[in-house]
Structures are given as structure tokens and as C-alpha cells.
Specification:
The chain is an alpha/beta fold. The chain folds into two domains: 169 residues, Rossmann fold (3-Layer(aba) Sandwich), CATH 3.40.50.1950; 217 residues, Rossmann fold, CATH 3.40.50. The protein is 33% helix and 24% strand. The protein contains 13 helices and 19 strands. The strands form five sheets. The protein has an eight-stranded mixed β-sheet with strand order 12-11-8-13-16-17-18-19, sandwiched between helices. Strand 9 and strand 10 form a beta hairpin. Helix 1 crosses helix 8. Cytidine-5'-triphosphate binds next to helix 11 and strand 16.
């Protein structure tokens, strides 16, 4: 029988084992609430603080609220061997707050304290909850580190706008504890349910979000797409066993286990999608790709004193139509059509023009449907003439209904 060390809680009575990592940011005080809520929800919480995080919140607070004593160092235990124990044992690791420094160390694979060692030693899903000043949050190095991590399947609960340390206001404030706890519990529930598996072995690429086309360094043309529906398709496909690549312009949370490619413009989305399309079985173009972009993006900011600029636009390439031309036998192509009038007519016309199997149409003039809502209502038109509708439902449910249609097509003899 394995020896039970001072920090080994022994069996967790079937409860999920979550490592709550806390790095050194003022938002560490909110991690106390995350800890309490997770324990209240029946989760076994092992708090791991970085040494410097203890300058913000004392170990005693987490000792009192967590399910086992707080640890900060690989030397906390008699033998340093258990430095990988937490990572190996965890069902999930959540880092809240994740500072710029923590993200950099994690992205680089450093294992210079117990928290980073745990992150590097774990095969469990990881959720990071960044918190930092706006300038740091927007810094290219932080963006690059996050892109590296999301590319490895790390999920992100993005920060929100609000008051920051020192009284500044901006984006970078850690998400609220209830949002973080909901993300953790949802992931644990998904893992317990296990992937339904009907997309097991299927490679699926999904695009999401509205593209941004630069006018000058500070201005761009975009649209109202939030990326929520595309991210929901990525999460649902992953849950059902697919290997998923998500090409996105959106800052929506990254679903765990999904490879994420961040893009901004229609041209970047085109490059990212076409480079990968030959290697996948399904492409879902949920992105709202700009149809036009400024012919010239000016290098330096346009000023009022220069007069009203004359915007000359040029057409972008139609990615979905190109996918239709390149399609290989058996590949399933899905498009989205956000319309405000004659939804069936326009959707059917696009289905044919772009040469796709399914066109998912929604009437974005209806309440609670489409852009930026958490709900959607769609009609799915098939090239084979089949039509199915999903009444107003959470975007996650719409995603599952769409995947049901995709599964049927994949199983159909070609
Ligand atoms: N699409 C694309 N590349 C573009 C424009 C659109 O791949 N340059 C894809 C979208 O991702 C979506 C589908 O085509 O899956 C339909 O997009 P939509 O904007 O509704 O159609 P358009 O062809 O742009 O037609 P219109 O603007 O006339 O409605």
C-alpha cells in the first residue's frame, strides 16, 4: 500500500481533485473565493501558491478553506519526489490569477517552483485565468505566450474590463470567481461524461469570429460576430472525440484540448484555413469573414487635420467557396449564413454557390439569435435537400445539433 505523506489526502471519495494554482497578483484575494466555492461544490481542492503569492494572501487562508494544506515549494514535503504528485493526481489544474510572469514560465516549460512543476507534470486539463494591467495584457509577449499555451490545449478564462490595482480602469481584471468556478465545474462534468465518441478519429477544423480589416494602425472594419457559436462547435466536437483545430479572431474562452490558431484578418484566416483544410475531414466556417477590406491600410494614424479619408475597398477572397473547389472526396463542408431577410432563399443560394454540404442559417434580426448572444436559433439546409431546425437554444446545444448532422453525413456512403 502506498505510504500516505503529510500532504497526501488519501482517497478523495470520488470527488474531483483540482489543483488551484495562485500566482502573485492582487487578484489572489479572489482566488480565496474560487477555493471556497469549489469546495462547496464538492471538489477536493489542493491549493498551490507561488512563494510571492503569499505576499498577497496568506497560506493560512487557503489552509482553512482548501481540502488539504497549502503548498508553495517542492521542498514542502519530506521528500522532493512528490513534486510531480499533484500534477499526476489532478483531474484539473486551474491557475487564478495567472500573472504575465506565470504564463511566460509555463509557456517556456520552466519548472522552477511547485506550481510550474505541477503544470509541466500534468496531463490533466489546465485552465488559466489571466490577471494583469491592461498594458501587460496587451503586450505582444503575453499574447504570444497565451497563443502558445492555447495551441497546446490550455483553456483560458479571459480577463474582464474593470478597476485594476492602483485605481486604473481597463481590461486585464481577473474574471469573477463564479465565472471561473463555472468553467472548472463544466470541464469536470464534461470529462466525467466522457466524449460521446461519435467523432472519434475525425479531424475537424472550425473558424470563428469576425475578421478585422485595418484602415490604419488604430482603426479597423469589422462586424458583430462574437465567435461564441464557432467556439461552441469546437468544444462540442472535441467533447465528442474529434481532433479539433479552431482558427479564431475571438477572445472567447479557448476550449480545452483544442488546437487554437489566432488570426485577425480575412487574409490570415484564409491562409490558416487553406493550409490545414486538406488534412481534415470536416471544415465548419462559422467565422464572419469580411467581404471587403480597405485597399490600402495606412502605416501611420490618420488625423482629422488630414481631412476625411476616402476609403477605397477591395473584395476579399471567399474562403468557403475555395474550400468547395478544393474539396476532397468524403470531406464535409459546412457554412453559416447570418441573414436578415429571405433566410431560406439566401441560405440555399449560398449552399449551391459555395458547393457545401450544409448551410446553417439564422435570422439575426430575431431576438436572442446570432451575434454576441449566448443563444441561437438555426435552420440547417443540406445539399441533399434535407432541412432541420433548432429552436432557440444555448449555442452549445445548437453546436451539438449541427454535429449530429455532420455525423450523419460522415457515415453516409460516398
Ligand atoms: N465566407 C468565407 N469567406 C468570405 C466570406 C464568407 O469563407 N470572404 C463564408 C462564411 O464563413 C460563411 C459563409 O461563407 O460560412 C457565408 O458567409 P456570408 O457572409 O453570409 O456570405 P457571403 O458570401 O459573404 O454573401 P453576402 O455577403 O452576399 O450575404
Amino acid at each position: 500500500m502506498a505510504e500516505v505523506t503529510a500532504h497526501d489526502p488519501g482517497p478523495t471519495d470520488g470527488r474531483s481533485f483540482v489543483v488551484l494554482g495562485v500566482s502573485a497578483g492582487i487578484a489572489a484575494y479572489k482566488a480565496v473565493e474560487v477555493c471556497r466555492r469549489l469546495v462547496d461544490a464538492g471538489v477536493h481542492v489542493a491549493p498551490v501558491l507561488t512563494e510571492r503569492a503569499t505576499n498577497f494572501v496568506g497560506r493560512a487562508t487557503f489552509d482553512a478553506l482548501g481540502s488539504e494544506p497549502t503548498q508553495t515549494s517542492v521542498w514542502d514535503e519530506d521528500s522532493p519526489i512528490p513534486h510531480t504528485r499533484l500534477g499526476q493526481r489532478a483531474d484539473l489544474v486551474v491557475v487564478a490569477p495567472a500573472t504575465a510572469d506565470l504564463l511566460a514560465r509555463y509557456a517556456a516549460g520552466l519548472a522552477d517552483d511547485l506550481l510550474t512543476t505541477t503544470l509541466v507534470a500534468t496531463a490533466a486539463p489546465v485552465i488559466v485565468c489571466p490577471a494583469m494591467h491592461t498594458e501587460m495584457w496587451e503586450h505582444p509577449s503575453v499574447r504570444a505566450n497565451l497563443a502558445t499555451l492555447t495551441g497546446r490545449g490550455v483553456a483560458v478564462v479571459p480577463p474582464e474590463e474593470g478597476r485594476l490595482a492602483g485605481g486604473d480602469v481597463g481590461s486585464g481584471r481577473m474574471a469573477e470567481p463564479e465565472t471561473i468556478v463555472a468553467a472548472v465545474l463544466a470541464r469536470l462534468a464534461d470529462d466525467r461524461a466522457g466524449p460521446a465518441g461519435d467523432l472519434s478519429g475525425v479531424r475537424l477544423l472550425v473558424s470563428a469570429g469576425g475578421t478585422r480589416e485595418a484602415i490604419d494602425p488604430v482603426r479597423f472594419i469589422t462586424n458583430r460576430s462574437s465567435g461564441k457559436q464557432g467556439h461552441a462547435v469546437a468544444a462540442a466536437a472535441r467533447r465528442r472525440g474529434a481532433d479539433v483545430v479552431l482558427v479564431t479572431t475571438s477572445a472567447q474562452p479557448r476550449p480545452a484540448g483544442v488546437e487554437v490558431v489566432e488570426v485577425e484578418t480575412a487574409a490570415q484566416m484564409e491562409e490558416a484555413v487553406l493550409a490545414r483544410s486538406a488534412g481534415v475531414d470536416v471544415v465548419v466556417m462559422a467565422a464572419a469573414v469580411a467581404d471587403f477590406r480597405p485597399k490600402v491600410a495606412v502605416d501611420s494614424k490618420l488625423h482629422k487635420s488630414d481631412g476625411v479619408p476616402e476609403l477605397v475597398l477591395e473584395a476579399t477572397n471567399d474562403i468557403l467557396a475555395e474550400l468547395g473547389r478544393r474539396r476532397r472526396p468524403g470531406q464535409v463542408l459546412v457554412g453559416f449564413a447570418a441573414e436578415t431577410d429571405d433566410v431560406p432563399g439566401r441560405a440555399r443560394a449560398k449552399l449551391v454557390a459555395k458547393g457545401v454540404d450544409l448551410m446553417v442559417a439564422n435570422d439575426v434580426s430575431a431576438p436572442q439569435v446570432g451575434f454576441d448572444h449566448d443563444t441561437n436559433a438555426v435552420t440547417v439546409f443540406g445539399a441533399d435537400g434535407t432541412v432541420s431546425t433548432v429552436a432557440l437554444a444555448a449555442k452549445a446545444e445548437v453546436a451539438d445539433a449541427l454535429i449530429d448532422r455532420i455525423v450523419t453525413l460522415l457515415r453516409a456512403p460516398s
